[in-house]
Amino acid sequence: MEKHLTLPFTSFNSLTLFTGLCLGISAPAYAQAADNAEKKQDDTLVIEAQAPSLYAPGQSADPKFTRPLVDTTRTITVIPKQVLNDQGVNNLTDALKNVPGVGAFYAGENGSSSTGDAVYMRGVDTSNSIYVDGIRDIGSVSRDTFNTEQVEVIKGPSGTDYGRSAPTGSINMISKQPRMDNGLDASVSVGSAWFRRSTLDYNQMLNDTTAFRLNLMGEKTHDASRDKVQNERYGIAPSLAFGLGTSNRLYLNYLHVTQHNTPDGGVPTIGLPGYSAPSAATSALNSSGKVNTHNFYGTNSDYDDSTTDTVTMRFEHDLSENTTIRNTTRWSQIKQDYLLSAFMAADSNITRPNSDVGSWSLGRVANTKDVSNKILTNQTNITSKFQTGSIGHDVSAGVEFTREQQTNYGVNALTLPAANIYHPNSDISIGGLTRNGANANGTTDTAGIYAFDTLQITRTFEINGGVRLDSYHTSYDSATACGSTGRGALACPAGVPKNTPITTVNTNKSGNLVNWKVGALYHLTENGNLYANYAISQQPPGGSTFALAASGTGNSANRTDFKPQKAKTTEIGTKWEVMDKRLLLSAAVFRTDIENDVEANDDGTYSQYGTKRVEGYELSASGNITTDWQVIAGYTQQHASVRQGAIETAEGSSSLPYTPKHAFTLWNQYQVSDDWSVGGGARYVGGLSRGTDGAVGTPSYTEGYWVADAKAGYRVNRNLDIQLNVYNIFNKDYVASINKSGYRYHPGEERTFLLTANVHF
């Protein structure tokens, strides 16, 4: 949409009038002069300029990335608020469907289901590399986007940017902040399976430099595709800003989210392509057909409760027009406890009272968690632009001090009845969780320092680089209740009563991580460039989780004396701004080599000889094709493989699991008229291999699938518009995620609709 900037000219020349009066000009002459002045006051200068595209933010909101996205030598996908609104997206996992090859493809171990935003990217679990405003966000919860301005997905090693992180990328959610205007945006949504959601975004200027913003959210729904799976969440996010428009700015933010959900353990893979009965005794399953994907194998006692509380204070001071210093302090706590009744579908867990498959049942196991995650951090960053001779500099540097704490509380074991394979009974209660006194405690203290610089050697050539040093110390202790049964059971010492907590681990680990990156960019034209980038990223044993030091220096994959895992990434790409610089086109080829991967030896010990490689290319487009036509799209082809080490996929190939070779995503919206808009999109996820744990007869892969969505919007008046979103419009039946053993999977959501009324003042 074109915007007109109107600038009035004050043409009444007071000096001329004063001189004329002194000379005693005639009344007619004065009248003519006044008339001319009045006419000139009505003159205006009209400047026509294209409004920036709401689908293509030109800059990352993280000050560590100082250059515009078009000149950033990395593959970065930004999902702005407008895209989330148009798609009716309300959580992080759904937002990431706009990024090819990124998704929740992994459903957990056999008896342990993944919860929350379980994200895989370029062959690696990235769930522990999720950040909010550049600060690590720990916890296995589902993150709502009601207080999110945009989501930034940075592919490639992010160790230089954020410290220890997944070797293939990171995800950064940018929070909404107070603005220098007054406005209210509210929405009410209803949809399939009694979906109900409402949000409020209210911004109020208190004076010329102070503003208050309040975001509220409430949602309650049943899963349209899954019986008895319900979700309920509420959120409040007030924020206050002082000094807006001045050189000193203070932001105060608070976020609280409460969730009461039903965890979902999935459905058996019986009847899927690649399934075969685990033994001759169960061979009837080969022809018994698929189970109803609506079946719920949990119980009435299943629940997943969590609370998130985050307090943030950020102070910004402009030292000069080109130099700004920022200091951010954040305290955050996520508490989560859940009971998930998963089923075990191995041959030994199938009960067969007679030859009728309809009477057969699967053993259930209680998957439990009672955990508290806390983080306290203080981060200082300075950005500056300056010249040294003919060379321009664009600098970002800073120091960070962070303490992360996690406490896992042990709970008493629960016994669950079996579930019928085809007609499970979930109308049973097994009680709740009770702590048994055992626990596991982890604390990681990190001090980091970094510096990045982009050197503008000439008008067309730039070199950038950066280095980060992190010094960390992790301590870990755990106690296990003795006398239990199952995996990891601990026998009680002589004379010690059953369920007595016994200390099993008490250890610590310290180390330093040095990560760095270097890149070069050449401007082929004013609109396009060619770039290359190389980076080193490391993370300690156990990765970003508190598995570090879990088993001391003994025989463990997380031994504290192991070297950090190292990732080396090379990327060559090109970026172009076209259509009046409102459409950004990107293309890149990449290769990531991962070293020091831990592998099991034949004698049961562990060594660090494993290497992996993820390579491929990615294409993307975001912005406006025309004034009325907006698009965000991407395609990736990736080959992820084990170069040296044990095979990780059930099908026996060298591929890495949960990594589709081909992935495509497209969403576009067209403004048909002033009042009507239509939108639609499609995404493709290629078939992927699952992991391996020795399971017999289960599918070793999932098939690729296409899913299409659509939207129609109508503007009733300047204060009200209505939109209808339809998801999976062709009602495609597909596997969204599969677990490591292949016994369980989560079916994709069937066709649903969402009707939303949006109010603006």
From TrEMBL:
GO biological process: siderophore transport
Signal peptide span: 1-33
Pfam families to which the protein is assigned, alphabetical: Plug, TonB_dep_Rec_b-barrel
Principal subcellular localization: membrane
GO cellular component, one term: cell outer membrane
PROSITE patterns hit by this protein: TONB_DEPENDENT_REC_3
Membrane topology: Multi-pass membrane protein
GO molecular function: siderophore uptake transmembrane transporter activity; signaling receptor activity
Subcellular localization, as worded in the UniProt entry: Cell outer membrane
CDD domains in UniProt: ligand_gated_channel (cd01347)
NCBIfam families the record matches: PRK09840.1, TonB-siderophor
Record family assignment: Belongs to the TonB-dependent receptor family.
Protein name as it appears in the record: Catecholate siderophore receptor Fiu
Organism: Rouxiella badensis
